[in-house]
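Renewal narrative, Specific Aim 1. Our central claim is that a sequence can be written position by position from structural information alone. The example that follows is taken directly from our test logs and has not been curated for this report. It begins with the structure tokens describing the chain, in the order in which they were read.
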């Protein structure tokens, strides 16, 4: 992407699935600087990652001040262990809410635009059509509640310079994710059972990362949704991964009741990403096309 937008951009969660993709897809003229709890990047020694605890306001203030001038902050770092969050609510709160607020406060102090990555789990899943950014939120569990608190803290701290981008069902080249788990299990088993009564939009970081850069570069403000086009159940997602990867494993649908988890999930959390598409001039790819691209990459 060729753009006059230039300078250093702070990318949090840089050792993670989305943060690492953001570092690798920075636009021309942008020098991304990653932060994570550990300074060493996974498998990419050419990328600069600074170790920092974002839940410490002092560390965040010192880091941002040391990097000035900054052209922007991208904040995908989060506590995303949805089930474990029910037992580790204080940790989830510190990472998802306190850290986000710390970054937004520092960004506002220095007039730095910020993009916060949030989640479909802010919704309760009772809708029958895709959720728009302005629809009422009603998170069901700790993860969704702490992520929404992070949104609200950022809005309060940096109302003029913030974009919140909610996404869902992420997978990508690095980190653990659903299609990777399914294909590993498909190597071990002849049959799999996967939940078919939870519906969303599987979203590749190969699609999402460039969209997040667009939000920053194009000066997006307010709330956006960013997901691959179309909708699928986890069963549909699994069956497509098995088919596209050429596996012979049979995938069977089952209900959420048959596969209970500690944290509640929204039954329907498809996101309406039309506001983002209007900003960028294009939507993210259809979910099945994006999955095929991911599975067939070199």
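The sequence written for that structure reads:
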């Amino acid at each position: 992407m060729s753009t006059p937008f230039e300078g250093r951009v702070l990318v949090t969660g840089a050792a993670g699935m989305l943060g690492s993709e953001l570092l690798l897809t920075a636009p021309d003229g942008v020098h991304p600087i990653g932060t994570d709890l550990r300074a060493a990047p996974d498998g990419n020694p050419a990328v600069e990652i600074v170790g920092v605890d974002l839940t410490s306001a002092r560390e965040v203030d010192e880091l941002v001040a040391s990097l000035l001038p900054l052209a922007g902050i991208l904040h995908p770092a989060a506590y995303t262990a949805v089930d474990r969050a029910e037992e580790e609510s204080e940790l989830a709160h510190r990472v998802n809410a306190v850290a986000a607020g710390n970054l937004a406060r520092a960004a506002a102090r220095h007039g730095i635009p910020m993009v916060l990555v949030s989640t479909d789990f802010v919704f309760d899943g009772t809708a029958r059509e895709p959720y728009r950014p302005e629809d009422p939120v009603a998170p069901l569990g700790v993860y969704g509640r702490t992520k929404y608190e992070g949104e609200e803290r950022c809005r309060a701290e940096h109302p003029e310079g913030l974009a919140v981008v909610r996404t869902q069902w992420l997978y990508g080249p690095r980190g653990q994710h659903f299609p990777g788990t399914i294909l590993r299990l498909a190597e071990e088993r002849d049959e799999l059972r996967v939940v078919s009564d939870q519906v969303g939009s599987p979203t590749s970081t190969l699609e999402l990362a460039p969209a997040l850069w667009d939000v920053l570069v194009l000066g997006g403000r307010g709330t956006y949704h960013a997901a691959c086009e179309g909708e699928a159940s986890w069963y549909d997602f699994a069956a497509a991964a098995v088919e596209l990867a050429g596996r012979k494993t049979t995938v069977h649908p089952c209900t959420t009741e048959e596969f209970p988890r500690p944290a509640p999930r929204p039954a329907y959390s498809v996101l309406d990403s039309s506001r983002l598409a209007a900003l960028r001039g294009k939507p993210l790819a259809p979910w099945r096309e994006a999955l095929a691209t991911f599975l067939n990459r070199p």
